[in-house]
Structures are given as C-alpha cells and as structure tokens.
Amino acid sequence: MEADPPDAALNGLFRDVLMVPMTPASLLLKVYYEQLYDRVETRRSRLLLRMDGLLAAEIESRQFAVTAPERLAAYRETCIAFLDERLETYNPVGIQYTFGNAPSELASELEFQLDWYDSKPEFADLVEAARGLAAEGISDDARAALADELIHRAGAFPDRSIIAAYEAGPALQKLPDYVVARAIEEIVCDRDSAP
C-alpha cells in the first residue's frame, strides 16, 4: 500500500496529489472534478439564470457604474466565458491534460500569482479533505459517493477563495469571477453562498 505523498510546498501540491502514482486521494479528486463537470454541464441553464440575477443584484448593491445596456451585456458575456472556462477546467479530459505533465515549480507559482485571489489554502483544505475521505480498495460507486461528500464539504475549488477575496475588496474587474463562483456554489454544490 502506497501512502499519500507527504505535505509539500503548495506549488508542488498539484503534482503530489494528482500525478502518478495514483493514491486514494488523487483518485477521489479526479472523480470530484468529473462530478463537478457533469453538474455544471447539466445545470448550465439554471446557472445562467442565477448568474444574471447575481450580476444585476451585485451591480445594484455595490452601485457599480454599469448602466449602459451594452456594458451590462459585456459583463454578462464575460461571466458566461468564465463559466465555460470553469467547465473546461473540470473536464475529465482537461484534468488529464492539465495534470498530465508536471509543471515546474516556477510555472506552478506563477499560476497562483496570476490569480487575484489566493487559492493555496483552499486547495490544501480540499486535498486534506480528500485524504480524510479516501480509502484503499473502494468501489467506483463508493468513490462517487465520497466525491459527492467532498463537493458538499469543500464546494467547488476555487470558489471559496474567489468569494472571500471579492467580499474583502469588491471591484468591478473581479465581478465576473465572483458571480460565477456564487452561482456554482448555489446551483452545482447546493450550498448557500450568500455573504
């Protein structure tokens, strides 16, 4: 029985958890992402409706200067593009592509730096939750049930990071990410994302 890799620097955590050799936690995380993909894909119409409502409510409550219809349409299109990007991130084929080649430590760190939110602690929590739920020799059905539990506990990565960072410093350029994260938490993860 091979143990999960030891806790490592977070810039190498993706490799440690999602690369070979396969561990119970890495297998569970793959199923977690597959289920997120299926849920986003099948609930897309509900997500789009919720995103529209969240976008309008947030613009109004924060009094962002988005009054021209074409500007509002541009923010809506951006939200849809971000949702599509998230769907592709969760795509089982995309996950294999993303994690199939181990990125260098510098590339991993750069990826984290490019985000306006800090998702390292959330990812570490996700991995820790997966390790706590995972077990050797479980069936695919049991693994699917554990992935559902992981989604219930942890939500969809990196939504918690996005929501917390936006709420700490709301800004119009962060709004599309925030709207998508809130909608996914509510519609896909069946979690209350309201502040």
What is the chain-wise order of helices and strands?
HHHHHHHHHH
- Please report the distance between the alpha carbons of the first and last residues: 43 Å
Instruction: Please mark out the parts with pLDDT under 50 across 5 or more consecutive residues, or reply none.
Output: 1-13, 15-20, 96-100
Largest sheet: none
Please identify the structural class as seen in this structure: mainly alpha
Radius of gyration: 17 Å
- How much of the sequence is in beta strands? under 5%
Q: Per the principal axes of the C-alpha atoms, what is the gross shape?
A: globular
Q: Strand tally, please?
A: 0
* Tally of domains: 1
Helix residue percentage: over 70%
Average pLDDT number: 84
Number of helices: 10
Protein model, in words:
This protein is mainly α. The chain has ten helices and no strands. It has helices at about 15-20, 25-40, 45-60, 70-90, 90-100, 105-115, 120-135, 140-155, 160-170, 175-190.
Question: Keyphrases for this structure?
Answer:
single chain, mainly alpha, disordered N terminus
Write the layout of secondary structure elements.
Layout: H1 13-18, H2 24-42, H3 44-62, H4 69-90, H5 92-100, H6 105-114, H7 120-133, H8 140-154, H9 159-168, H10 175-188
Helix pairs in contact: 2-4, 2-7, 2-8, 3-4, 3-10, 4-10, 7-8, 9-10
Short structural summary:
With 195 residues, the protein is mainly α. It has helices at residues 13-18, 24-42, 44-62, 69-90, 92-100, 105-114, 120-133, 140-154, 159-168, 175-188.
